[in-house]
């Protein structure tokens, strides 16, 4: 009897220990598993929400703050540094950009990341030049007020632009509208703009695809998307010299003129992280744009992407014939494009086109 009690007690203790051991093992596995899952989750979170800030990898929410700090620091010397770094060539590049745009009366244009007004003032001057030379036929749209919206996410850059506008006597000009806004989430309506420009700005956004999609959304059919951006040099020997200048000279110029070496080190690095010309052109096409073209300047130091918001449609004739036409939408009318634009005057191709009606 006594022996049986001992045996029963031992078995009971053994079972308890066994159950406790199993519980500890289960708890340990769950704890370890949760830690592993938490670790993996944190890694996945970092990986899925990481982006580049120059050569650094940072969280997406950090990049906008870092880029904001860069432009807050350089706002007052931004245009001067552009002149110095490019030996004045940036002025010619912007003139080339605006020349492709061909402003017209009643135009609604959006210049993104253009806070200092450098591109907007050129568009404004080009429009006034067209008016003075009376190159455009007066029609039903000419009474509409031309408006150029200067959009920038950084208030310091906008303040620099407003100050320059005041110096030009344009402080109260209604054609220039200054808007604080994000290229990835524009506050403008769909199909509201005739033109969209962005110069040296798109490589600084966190999600380039979103910025392009927003450009596509706000542009009217027949609108123009133009992007001027530092790009990739495609000439081997020149590339080596350009890299040497970029990494050894530009940051030192930034420190000397703007008192900010780090911001211009970021500029140099951000150019190297920006997609090459062909890949960026594909990104524009993927957003829905057609006829994406780009022009390399100075061997690819910069490139201008020129996109016409065009569509292809099938036109059915009364006699049953079907033809494929390239058409454009211009001032709410349809035109068949017969010639390639070769001159700066936007009307040279718009008014030589054949207006389409419901007939062949």
Can you tag this structure with a few keywords?
disordered N terminus; 4-stranded antiparallel β-sheet; Rossmann fold; alpha/beta; 7-stranded mixed β-sheet; about 350 residues; globular; 2 domains; 12 helices
Second CATH tier, the architecture of the largest domain: 3-Layer(aba) Sandwich
Order of helices and strands: HEEHHHEHEHEEHEHHHHEEEEEHE
Number of domains: 2
**What is the fold named in CATH at topology level of the largest domain?**
Rossmann fold
Going by CATH, the homologous superfamily of the largest domain would be: Vaccinia Virus protein VP39
Which descriptor suits the 3D outline? globular
Strand content: 15-25%
- Low-confidence stretches at least 5 residues in length (pLDDT < 50)? 1-13, 19-48, 310-360
Q: How far apart are the termini?
A: 113 Å
Portion of residues within helices:
40-55%
Query: What is the CATH class of the largest domain?
Result: Alpha Beta
Can you count the beta strands?
Answer: 13
Oligomer: single chain
- Class of secondary structure makeup: alpha/beta
The largest pleated sheet is described as: 7 strands, mixed
From the alpha carbons, calculate the radius of gyration and give it in angstroms: 30 Å
């Amino acid at each position: 009897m006594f022996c049986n009690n001992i045996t029963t007690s031992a078995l009971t203790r053994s079972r308890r220990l066994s159950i406790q051991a199993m519980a500890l093992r289960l708890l340990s596995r769950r704890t370890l598993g949760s830690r592993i899952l938490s670790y993996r989750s944190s890694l996945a979170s970092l990986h899925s929400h990481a982006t580049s800030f120059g050569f650094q990898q940072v969280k997406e929410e950090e990049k906008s703050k870092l880029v904001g700090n860069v432009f807050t620091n350089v706002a007052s010397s931004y245009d001067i540094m552009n002149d110095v770094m490019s030996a004045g060539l940036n002025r010619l590049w912007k003139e080339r950009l605006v020349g492709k745009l061909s402003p017209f009366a009643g135009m609604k244009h959006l210049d993104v990341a253009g806070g200092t007004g450098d591109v907007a003032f050129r568009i404004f001057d080009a429009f006034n030049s067209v008016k003075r030379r009376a190159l455009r036929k007066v029609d039903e749209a000419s009474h509409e007020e031309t408006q150029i919206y200067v959009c920038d996410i950084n208030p310091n850059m906008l303040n620099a632009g407003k100050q320059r506008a005041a110096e030009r006597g344009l402080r109260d000009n209604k054609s220039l509208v200054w808007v604080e806004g994000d290229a990835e989430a524009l506050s403008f309506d769909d199909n509201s703009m005739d033109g969209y420009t962005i110069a040296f700005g798109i490589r600084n956004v966190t999600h380039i695809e979103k910025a392009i999609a927003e450009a596509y959304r706000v542009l009217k059919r027949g609108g123009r998307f133009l992007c001027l951006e530092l790009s990739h040099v495609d000439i081997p020997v020149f590339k080596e010299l350009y890299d040497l200048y970029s990494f050894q000279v530009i940051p030192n110029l930034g420190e000397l003129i703007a008192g900010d070496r780090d911001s211009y080190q970021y500029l140099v690095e951000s150019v190297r992280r920006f997609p090459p010309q062909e890949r960026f052109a594909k990104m524009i096409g993927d957003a829905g744009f057609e006829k994406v073209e780009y022009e390399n300047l100075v061997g690819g130091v910069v490139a201008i992407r020129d996109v016409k918001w065009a569509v292809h449609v099938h036109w059915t004739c009364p006699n049953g014939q079907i033809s494929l036409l390239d058409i454009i939408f211009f001032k709410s009318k349809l035109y068949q494009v017969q010639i390639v634009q070769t001159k700066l005057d936007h009307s040279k191709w718009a008014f030589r086109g054949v207006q389409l009606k419901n007939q062949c």
